[in-house]
Amino acid sequence: MKCLIALLLCVVCSLPAWSEEGMWTLDNPPIKAMQRDIGWAPGAPWLEKTMRSAARIAGGCSASFVSKNGLVLTNHHCVATCVEQLSSKGQDFLKAGFLAQQVSDEKQCPAMEINRLEKITDVTKEVKAATAKLTGTAFTLAQNAAKAKITSACVGNEGAKVRCDVVDLYRGGQYKLYRYHRFQDVRLAFAPENAMASFGGDPDNFNFPRFDLDMALIRVYEDGKPAQTGDFFPFNTTGPVADEPVFVAGHPGRTERELTVAQLEFVRDYTLIDRLLNTAEYRGVLTQYRSAGGEAERIAARTLFNTENSYKVQRGQLLALSDAGHLQRKRAEEEALRKFVASRPELAKTTLGAWDAIARAVKVHREMYQEMVQIENGRAFESRYFTMARTLVRGAAERAKANADRLPEFNDNKLPEVEARLFSGAPIYPEFETLKTTYGLTKMRERLGADSPLVKKVLGEKSPQQLADSLVAGTKLTDREVRRALWNGGAAAIAKSDDAFIRLAVAIDTDARELRARYEREVEAVIQKNSELIAQARFAQTGDSAYPDATFTLRLSYGRIKGWEKSGKVVAPFTDFAGAFERATGNDPYALPASWLSSKDRLNLKTHFNQSSTHDIIGGNSGSPMINRQGEVVGLVFDGNIHSLSGAYWYDKVLNRAVSVNSAGMLEALDKIYGAKSLVAELRGL
Amino acid sequence: MKCLIALLLCVVCSLPAWSEEGMWTLDNPPIKAMQRDIGWAPGAPWLEKTMRSAARIAGGCSASFVSKNGLVLTNHHCVATCVEQLSSKGQDFLKAGFLAQQVSDEKQCPAMEINRLEKITDVTKEVKAATAKLTGTAFTLAQNAAKAKITSACVGNEGAKVRCDVVDLYRGGQYKLYRYHRFQDVRLAFAPENAMASFGGDPDNFNFPRFDLDMALIRVYEDGKPAQTGDFFPFNTTGPVADEPVFVAGHPGRTERELTVAQLEFVRDYTLIDRLLNTAEYRGVLTQYRSAGGEAERIAARTLFNTENSYKVQRGQLLALSDAGHLQRKRAEEEALRKFVASRPELAKTTLGAWDAIARAVKVHREMYQEMVQIENGRAFESRYFTMARTLVRGAAERAKANADRLPEFNDNKLPEVEARLFSGAPIYPEFETLKTTYGLTKMRERLGADSPLVKKVLGEKSPQQLADSLVAGTKLTDREVRRALWNGGAAAIAKSDDAFIRLAVAIDTDARELRARYEREVEAVIQKNSELIAQARFAQTGDSAYPDATFTLRLSYGRIKGWEKSGKVVAPFTDFAGAFERATGNDPYALPASWLSSKDRLNLKTHFNQSSTHDIIGGNSGSPMINRQGEVVGLVFDGNIHSLSGAYWYDKVLNRAVSVNSAGMLEALDKIYGAKSLVAELRGL
Fold first, then answer.
1. What single string gives the DSSP state of each residue in B623-668?
2. Would residue A174 count as lying in a domain?
3. B99-147 tens-digit pLDDT
4. What distance lies between CA B561 and its chain's CA centroid?
5. Angle CA(B619)–CA(B623)–CA(B627) in degrees, nearest 5?
């Protein structure tokens, strides 16, 4: 009996998910755990409707359909780039906000793509068959080709409206084909003032209590008309109550919970610090640039916001990984899995060496990390011009090849998004691009050293500032017709071009591709192949009662509306409108906009504004709908608390909280502050 | 026999110093190790003369007397603040360099103090007797009082010319009284162009091969005349040869080699990253500020240089601490010492708990670290105005007390330096102070959080920028007569002052002092007391064949002129003038100044320029003389290689190298490029 209890305890211990933990795929919801933890679990129709009502912004956010006429709810910070791009010197929608009183006033975003998931198919067998017994370059090429073939067949001739991606789940434990409806005509309907969307600014980011109207409404169009999108989440007008079981259906971007200890230590000791230092210094440059005010302030606003956000995320992650206790738990889990593998002779033969193989690949990665980051990943060439030049140069070479032989980012299923970004009419500010280029080149020299052959090849005898000046002076890529001509002209046009950024992208392309090839061969393929083996072993140990690491695909998190307690301090789950007025100082970032100040008397100040909940989310979940058991929107996820930043590596049920805008709060503001009569009616289904 | 060998091996293992390792006090040179490692060791007269010929710049550098008329050799970067302060909009000596053709042309540095060590006395007994059986606040106060009493007696009535400090060696294992001759009238004789002093700029900093004329000549005066200083190091005109045994007599600032593993982990996981991130972001702000060119470039130059230097040092230190192997060795050493202690019942009774007590103090430190750093250490108030205001406010309160009861930085022996800094005529640029203040306040809010009562007390409803603007607009501390009046007026003048920075310093003084008191009581005193116990245990284990951690006091390092080899790449120990011309691109930071370009034909291009050697040095050693067995200057230490940055925690004989300017190279440049005829004659003893 004692023995049995010990065994049972052990099974419980090795269950990877804590209560309320997990970002679950919709084809494998944790029904039993949900019943156990919140006393309710969805059936197939609920899941189906949720899948078709949720949405993804291809650039990196979540969203949801909130009317049958293609109205989409997401965060302000998810559309802020569009808002900035629609702005001009005379008309700053970031500052002033934007409201289309009628559908015909809605403004098209220069480059935004919305995806709605329609179908998930298991393609594990096909992908694994293609790579069986292969290693290194052959493994990578075969896998790319297999995926290209599968997605091509899935898209067929409907590339403009259908998007198909093969998704690696469980780090290669499973491959699934995700088929999406693709919307590329997206228009802005409502955005509040930035001061209200991110009230409290960087100081309050990832904090709670919070008072942010971080919402926006956009609409998808087809054939020039609002798309008739069918399924959607209706708005709940009162919002959730404390402890209510609710759900988040969003697209978490990336977690690292399946990494081996060797990988986590590499992140902790090297890559995260390297990125963080870069972010910190860049933030300083941007802050000072922006302090000049006026146009500089407007131009750099979004870049600074994103940089500050990254800084806080990376800092939180580093603090999490520096927590010896959590890493020790990871180490114990890994040790237990290795022992499990060792105890099964068949499994041991294939898999026992997997951890050491990954550790060796990590060493290679460490050795080549800086060159890879600077030259192939392009950190050295931080500027929109270079990004476009790289796309044009590589696009010309890759599109000349058969789909299955291309770099995956130029597969047919990716081209509509690539082209939308490349031909976007978003304004480009040469002075700002010079600043970014100078920064990137300076840091490249610092990280690789002045004597690096790659640095000498890029800089020659020029200083970073001189090179940046001459690059920007020597480019015509600001003009999108020039970009279009180069794209359409292919390799011949590239060869003839004397554009300075095109020539730079050409000049370092061989080196960059060689770095990438080595990385794919000696790092990525090794890690991928051995992670698959570890994932299989984990399946053998626990079954798929585990959830896969986040992959920017649709996931369901379940939990409750709940605050938390730390060091004796209790944080309540709701804030209200009154709190926003109390927190306001009149000075940035605690200045309420005029619209709020003048509406105060009309508001029900007790309306819930923001709320905290136990959902397991991460970056990419921004804009996720929070829904109740009836499938109604009760909130809009826009952030996590500071403790949620450890969520990249593990879920901490005690402290990790998601932060969302309350549905009643959104309606109150839309109605009484912004007077968005027709949008309110549409949200209320009137 | 086997047993005896094992014992001997063990003794060798626990010898803390590697061959050529160590920063040795001049009263305890490692005679045997020197004989063993370099086949020569100094006698008492050599050591005595070296002590009296070496010098310290109180602000944080090393130097040496190089003529009987008070001429002092140090690095350009050690006097660059003076050079900047002597510059003005029309006359930029940092850029153009400075040469006094005659003694009467020498220019007084606004605030520089030179110290020459005259005597070392052991005061361990007195200090320990004063603190016996005390803990916490009582321990700190008693120790401060004992030190104040000892230094007062040492200085007597000669405060203007004598400086006495009680130095904690071996982290409290020994206390020694260092008596210095103090020189406060210091004048600039020669400084090359900054472009030549730090040729290669930040990219080449801490790298080798190197081509920097990082030298300057200053002179100490007494009664308005060049001081007759007696002992000095004559210049060797040919420089050292490869492998020659040579010596560095300098003032290493601070090492952390005696820290416990708990302390090192705290540095690795928290404090170093925190400082580094602050340095990185500040660097970004300064870089962008400076990029405006003109006056901004000149004003921010030194601050940016120092910030970039700190960045590289801190990054190197963090990489060193992230090296699991080295930390493992530390852990093993600590374990061995703990076992040694456990094996001696008497020692165990007093000392076995010391490591855990320190670990607990580290936890308290972690908890209060940010508030301490921001408010008491003043990182939140990054500006010269606040530094002066804090000195005035605390100085008024402290000087009213008996010497033994004061905060140590206001003891009588410190006041001459405090006053020299406070009344310095160095220019202050309000716009630049606003920038720094804004930065400091912004980061204070970020690190402590917008809801911290301390942050609310400082900022009120203002934004950091607003507060900085109003502080700088509301201060008259730019005027040194105002500072003098406040200093002389004491507490009454402070109470009456409506100066904005004075009021800020007053407003947070109680909080700041409370933080300091808690830190001293719960962190510093605990660590000090238990480090003493550990130091005693180490003495019992190894005797004082170990050297103490660096304390910015005179130390001797011995070693050889030597390059190194890494990953199959051999680095030779010398560079020459030809190499500088080869490395030059004409663009900053690789632009040779006009003086060099026009002198090229006159130069012996084979003259050795910079050199690498095995000496164990660290920050503070900048400006140290490198001397040969005859006591002649053969080099001027100005840097270490990149591997030397791990020297904060351990010495790596294989890779750690000091970098110095060759004596023949200095003479060649002074003579043929700068035409410094009379200085060359003085250095040659003609």
1. TPEEE-TTS-EEEEEEEE-GGGGGGGT---TTT--EEEEEHHHHHH
2. no
3. 999 999 999 999 899 999 999 999 999 999 999 989 889 999 999 999 9
4. 24
5. 115
Longest dimension (CA), chain B: 80
**Token output for A173:** 């434990």
DSSP SS3 for A200:
coil
User: Regarding beta strands A71-74 and A555-560, do their DSSP bridges make them parallel or antiparallel, or are they unpaired?
Assistant: unpaired
What are phi and psi for residue A225, nearest 5 degrees? -125, 155
Does residue B606 sit in the same domain as residue B658? yes
Alpha-carbon distance of A186 to A218, in angstroms, equals 7
Residue that the structure tokens 């230590």 belong to: A265
Give the 3-state secondary structure of residue B555.
Answer: strand
pTM score = 0.93
In a domain, A504, yes or no: yes
Q: What are phi and psi of B136, to 5 degrees?
A: 55, -140
CA distance A197 to A191: 8
A59: domain CATH number is 2.40.10.120
pLDDT tier at B544 (50, 70, 90 boundaries)? low
C-alpha A190: how far from chain center = 22
Substitution target in B261, B285, B309 with the highest count of A β-carbons within 10 Å is B285
Residue range A107-158, pLDDT digits in tens: 999 989 999 999 999 999 999 999 998 988 999 999 999 999 999 999 999 9
Structural domain boundaries, residue B19 = 2-113+184-256+548-683
Distance from CA of B302 to the nearest CA of A (A): 18
- Residue A561 gets which letter from DSSP? B
Q: How far is CA B444 from CA A306, B142, B456, B458, in A?
A: 21, 33, 11, 10
Whether residue A463 and residue B588 make contact (CB cut-off 8 A), yes or no, is yes
Distance from CA of B216 to the nearest CA of A (A): 27
- Best CA proximity match to A265, nearest among A324, A341, A351, A332: A324
Confidence grade of residue A18 (pLDDT, cut at 50, 70, 90)? low
Contact assessment for residue B68 and residue B160, using Cβ atoms and an 8 Å cutoff: no
Query: Do B502 and B582 share a domain, yes or no?
Result: no
- Stretch (H or E) spanning A55: strand A54-57
Contact B315 A277 (CB under 8 A): yes
Q: Which residues of B46-69 are buried (b: 16+ CB within 10 A; e: fewer)?
A: bbebbbbbbbbbbbebbbbbbbbb
Q: Which two tokens stand for residue B565?
A: 């080899």
List the Cα angle B504/B505/B511 in 5-degree steps: 100
Q: How many CB atoms lie within 10 A of CB B5?
A: 9
- How many domains is chain B built from? 2
Question: Which chain A positions have a beta carbon within 8 Å of B586's beta carbon?
Answer: 461
